[in-house]
Design goal:
- The protein has 240 residues and is mostly helical.
- The protein has one domain.
- It is 65% helix and 0% strand.
- The chain contains 16 helices and no strands.
- Helix 3 crosses helix 6.
- The longest helix is centred in the first third of the chain and has 25 residues.
- It starts with a helix and ends in a 25-residue tail after the last helix.
């Protein structure tokens, strides 16, 4: 009987220790900083396009997990190299300005005004694990070592030598003749462009779930009838 009780006690202690170890590992700063965020870019090239796209780049401000993923990505030295290389291409600027003129850019930033976003950030700011993970993102010894070794990276030298490439300046010189640039600038003379922005501002789907729910509330004196919202077609950005 004593042997059975001893074995049972040892099994119970082992099970508790395993559960405690798993719980502790799940809340470590390393695990929190490395946890993937759904719908976020995976490579440095995708991060550069994401941050320059004004129809998507505000997602990281609406979710603390996505903000953590963005902070972890932009603090990598390879991201800086990739961004410097991408900034030499005029196509990146045209795509970024086209996304800024896109009516969907309003909804991208309007969602950050939703009270649900403020509640999510308040919960994150009250969580010590959030600050621990954010501190680890910028003080990771391996990342600091990568920054220290960055001057010896051949990719850095390649980006520096690219400034001596005359083809880069030739592409910038011929940007004014690009039809996509003139097509983008002509959107301001298209009445549908203004209609798309007005429709985006009046569309409840442009806002978060809380504000959008308020805008979809039934009209006073008309039970069950929602307030009509005008919808206008949005112009297609150049190059898409």
């Amino acid at each position: 009987m004593k042997t059975k009780r001893l074995l049972l006690a040892l099994a119970l202690a082992g099970w508790c220790a395993t559960g405690l170890a798993q719980t502790t590992a799940a809340v470590t700063p390393q695990a929190a900083a490395a946890s993937p965020a759904a719908g976020m870019p995976k490579t440095h090239e995708e991060w550069v396009r994401y941050l320059s796209d004004f129809t998507r780049n505000a997602d990281m401000m609406a979710d603390p997990k996505k903000f953590m993923a963005a902070a972890s990505a932009v603090s990598e030295p390879q991201f800086l190299v990739t961004a410097m290389n991408a900034m030499m291409d005029p196509n990146l600027y045209m795509a970024s300005v086209a996304s800024l003129m896109d009516p969907r850019a309003y909804a991208n930033y309007a969602r950050t005004m939703d009270p649900a976003m403020a509640a999510a950030w308040m919960q994150a700011l009250l969580d010590p694990n959030f600050f621990s993970a954010l501190t680890y993102v910028f003080t990771d010894p391996n990342k600091l070592m990568r920054w220290a070794m960055m001057p010896m990276d051949p990719k850095v030298m390649s980006v520096a030598l690219s400034l001596l490439n005359p083809n880069i300046y030739l592409r910038w010189g011929t940007t004014g003749l690009d039809p996509r640039l003139w097509n983008m600038l002509s959107n301001t003379m298209n009445p549908a462009w203004y209609g798309g922005w007005a429709g985006g501002m009046a569309n409840p789907q442009s806002y978060g779930p809380t504000v959008g729910g308020w805008m979809q509330a039934p009209a006073a004196g008309l039970p069950g009838m929602a307030v009509p919202v005008p919808v206008y077609p949005a112009p297609v950005p150049p190059g898409q």
